[in-house]
Write a structure and sequence with these properties.
Blueprint: E1 3-8, H1 16-25, E2 31-36, H2 44-54, E3 63-67, E4 78-82, E5 87-91, H3 97-103, E6 107-110, H4 126-139, H5 144-147, E7 150-151, E8 163-165, E9 168-176, E10 182-187, H6 188-191, E11 199-205, E12 208-214, E13 226-230, E14 235-240, H7 245-249, E15 256-260
Parallel strand pairs: 1-2, 1-3, 3-5
Antiparallel strand pairs: 4-5, 4-6, 6-7, 8-9, 9-10, 9-15, 10-14, 11-12, 11-15, 13-14
Helix pairs in contact: 1-4, 2-3
């Protein structure tokens, strides 16, 4: 099955998303799926996190078009990335890179061959005129090398995986979701041998030091109590059951954290 997904900050009260899909169906018979179009306007990092969270649940060969593009119409390049499993298309501003790092074995190509773009290209809508047509042609079997040359000087954005040392784990806040859950780059894989459910851990985050239980889900603590858990993206979260942890702790993206365990 051929699949193209779409992720953007366009919202759904206008026709932008349907214009992209219209450009696609004129070229390919691939199935078109929306990831989200409610990314906060211009928030590249949020878009990058949403794509990285969704991509693992799509089948081999899926083509993802991600458009959060405050630099549209400037000298910023469009890129196509092949990975070990899926294909990523969008602006060269970092939005594709956490997913590329996560999926692995990636190669970056500049999108430059106008043959695979629409005939008329707007300076403000490359999602419709460049990225979507390229995605559609890729699903039809156009070789990646036909799209453009390989790049090594792309804009990188790597959320990383945190690290374990002795009796501590160190990481970074990569995203705060709408519930105020503090999502970190500490993965289930690196924590699986050091954290035990229902045991307390010490968390140093921002300027605060907190003791809290490591539990399977939010409901394992009382309402308004603090907790640590592995969320749906297989990343460690610092949360409050039915509360806003980020607001309470004054934590923001890129803040560092350290977890002590026995």
């Amino acid at each position: 099955m051929k699949i193209i997904t779409f992720l953007s900050d366009f919202g759904t009260k206008n026709s932008y998303v349907s214009q992209m899909k219209g450009a696609a169906v004129g070229i390919t018979n691939a199935r078109l799926i929306d990831i989200t179009h409610e990314i906060t306007p211009h928030n590249i990092r949020e878009g990058a996190y949403a794509l990285r969270s969704a991509a693992p649940y799509f089948p081999q060969g899926t083509v993802h078009v991600a458009v959060v593009d405050p630099g549209v119409g400037t000298g910023r390049r469009g890129i196509l990335i092949t990975t070990s499993k899926q294909i990523l298309i969008g602006p060269d501003n970092g939005i594709l890179m956490p997913t590329a790092h996560f999926l692995g074995d990636f190669i970056v190509y500049e999108i430059s061959n106008e043959k695979y773009m629409l005939n008329s290209i707007s300076s403000t809508f490359h999602g419709r005129d460049i990225f979507t047509p390229v995605a559609a042609h890729i699903t039809n079997g156009v070789p990646f090398e036909e799209i453009g040359n390989r790049l090594t000087d792309f804009v990188d954005l790597d959320f990383g995986q945190g690290e374990i040392r002795e009796n501590a784990a160190t990481g970074t806040v990569i995203y705060v979701d709408r519930f105020g859950n503090i999502i970190t780059n500490l993965t289930r894989e690196i924590l699986s041998n050091v954290l035990v459910y229902n045991k307390n851990i010490m968390v140093f985050i921002g300027e605060k030091c907190l003791e809290m239980p490591f539990v399977k889900s939010y409901g394992y603590v009382k309402k308004r109590d603090m907790l640590a858990t592995i969320g749906s993206s297989n990343l460690l979260e610092i949360s409050i059951n039915q509360g806003n942890a980020a607001k309470k702790l004054s934590v923001k993206e890129d803040d560092k954290l350290e977890i002590l365990f026995s």
